[in-house]
Design goal:
Blueprint (H helix, E strand, L loop, with lengths): L1 E10 L16 H7 L11 H8 L7 H12 L5 E5 L5 H8 L3 E6 L6 H7 L4 E4 L13 E4 L8 H14 L5 E5 L7 H24 L4 E11 L2 H10 L2 E9 L1 H5 L3 H9 L3 H8 L6 E8 L1
The structure holds S-adenosylmethionine (SAM).
Length: 287
């Protein structure tokens, strides 16, 4: 398990301290600000919602989930989605006929507007670290959550979902960050960090004040770490869906430029970085 940090260049600053969010656990306001949960746009129609929050959103990461979830989760499942945030994938699943209840630390601020578009969707308040998982669900889904947890919290999380999900039911969870591999280390901790410092120097050479802020987002885990912790609480792993290498490559200015300008570079880099896919959906069955 390795710290997952981003290196952000801030202008008009000389020196910055590491922000107070040292672990992956943060309050709801942090996420609401970070991911624009109060943004009132995009709720006029299903089409505007999809165009605003699904297609191409956050480097297109949500688009990867839908086909994976359709293949992993039976249509007759009763799904509880944890950490749903703005429930985009869940809304589209409900439109496909899935029975989905969303949840998060708070009910999503614009949920009434989402429900106007997707009337079968439900939303409840649920803190997965503190609260028990309510009974009666045959699939527990969590997208974009695991990256937040350190090892102790990850253990607690899997224990709770294993206790909460029905016997024979599914637990389908996504890490929302590449696994802890040499390639992801090179991209995140060497390349992106160096690019941030180069960018800072570029601004400074132009006479601007600039500093690099290291922001702690959570933890990258190896596939085996996640699977083993889940196995220990009676969740049998049956498939990992990994995709979205280009999301990780496109974070880098240098790699983006190489891929844009040199024919064949995109395919070559995707091959070389095959062990650093951004989307990793782990599917388990409760024994
Ligand atoms: C990166 S967002 C993911 C939102 C959405 N599932 C997605 O994939 O776009 C992480 C979400 O986890 C939620 N979260 C963080 N800690 C949580 C906890 N202890 N219990 C429930 N949700 C939590 C946050 O409120 C936030 O909405």
């Amino acid at each position: 398990m390795r710290e997952f940090a981003k290196y952000l260049v801030e202008l008009s600053c000389d020196e910055l301290s590491v922000p107070s969010y040292a672990s992956g656990l943060k309050d709801y306001n942090y996420f609401a600000n970070e991911y624009g949960y109060s943004d009132p746009s995009g709720y006029d129609s299903v089409r505007s919602f999809v165009e605003r929050y699904f297609v191409g959103y956050q480097l297109g990461r949500l688009e990867y989930y839908l086909p994976i979830l359709k293949s992993a989760i039976p249509q007759n499942s009763k799904i509880l989605s944890l950490a749903s945030g703005r429930p985009v994938v869940e809304a589209l699943m409900s439109e496909l006929g899935y029975d989905v209840t969303c949840s998060d630390l708070e009910v999503f601020r614009e949920f009434e507007k989402v429900k106007n578009l997707f009337p079968h969707l439900e939303y409840r308040k649920l803190d997965v670290v503190v609260d028990e998982i309510p009974a009666g669900y045959t699939t527990i889904l969590a997208l974009g959550l695991l990256y937040l947890f350190d090892e102790a919290t990850l253990r607690q999380f899997f224990r709770k979902v294993a206790e909460g999900v029905a016997h024979g039911g599914l637990v389908v969870v996504d890490s929302a960050i590449s696994p802890d591999t040499m390639t992801s280390y090179l991209i995140h901790d060497i390349l992106l960090r160096s690019e941030a410092h180069l960018k800072k120097v570029y601004y400074q050479l132009q006479g601007q004040k600039a500093a690099v802020r290291k922001v702690s987002y959570g933890f990258r885990k190896r596939h085996s770490e996640i699977i083993q912790i889940a196995n220990e609480v009676g969740l049998a792993h049956f498939k990992t869906f990994s995709t979205g290498v280009s999301i990780e490559l496109n974070r880098s200015y240098i790699l983006r430029t190489l891929m844009r300008t040199i024919p064949g570079m995109s395919s070559l880099l995707k091959l070389m970085a095959h062990d650093a896919p951004f989307v990793n959906v782990y599917a388990f069955r409760k024994l």
